[in-house]
Amino acid sequence: MIVYAIRRLLGAIPVVFIGITITFFIIHLAPGDPASCFLTPTMSIGSQEIIIERFGLNHPVHIQYFKWLCRIIFHFDFGNSFSNGRPASDVILDALPSTLLLTGLSLIFGLILGTLLGILSAIHKETSIDRILTTVMLFFYSMPAFWIGLMLLSLFAVKFNLFPASQLTSVFHDQLSSVERILDYAKHLALPVLTLGLAISATFYRYARTSMIESLNSDYITAAKARGIKRHRVIFIYGLRNALIPIISLLGLAIPLLFSGAVIIEVIFSLPGMGRVMVDAVLSRDYPIILAASTLAFISVIIGNMLADISYAIADPRIRLKENRH
Which string of b and e fits 46-65 if b means at least 16 CB within 10 Å? Predict the structure, then answer.
């Protein structure tokens, strides 16, 4: 398994390289210039040239690319932000904990809700419970996350004033006790986590329902019923164990979906995470921040796919036996 993981990581290096290369040329060929944010009509030509040279934009795009690539390979340096002069990697790392907190809580909420409802729907297949749950989860699966977020925001934050509408903490957060700080985090994260969790729970629901139905229709379930084993034991011991295998593999694949969804959610709720940083960087043409965030996104996709494969092999011994034969 370790050799397999190392082989996957080495094979992912060209994928990351191709991805960040395409991103580099796309953002440089897009209309707009980061230096224009600092230029004024009254500024002299000499001052304009100094700003452009400071950003390294006075060279052709291919020269900029090779210089940037050398910094990445030999120093793992994405450059400094055009907006505040800080290293791009530091800006991303400062925003990463908020995004990890949001995506982690959303993943847990979506996993539990989607899996439980999927199992319940499969047990009551072709009944009113199954039809209602399927309709509701199909609604959340079809609706974009930003629409769900806006509806929850307008309902629970604006109309009923039950939860804060923005930010991760209150103004007087530092003056609160430890318990009050946790509650403050919970109040601010409730709507963002609910928004992202509902979107991801619909995916888990579909997989859990389908997998549970297939498991309950299997021959070993029929044999267990024929031996007189109680129904609840057949469902939760024999059926559920095998039905959860696809859900385990889906966890790794959900990581990229959560990161992409967090970009929109953090903008809607004004959370200080990677999504907000990336949007601000795109609007200001802050190339180093965009490239650093894109690189992290590519890496998260690859790690998520690798974790999905490994977890599936761990959960299903037949996968390991097949690998050993090769």
Answer: eeeeebbeebebeeeeeebe
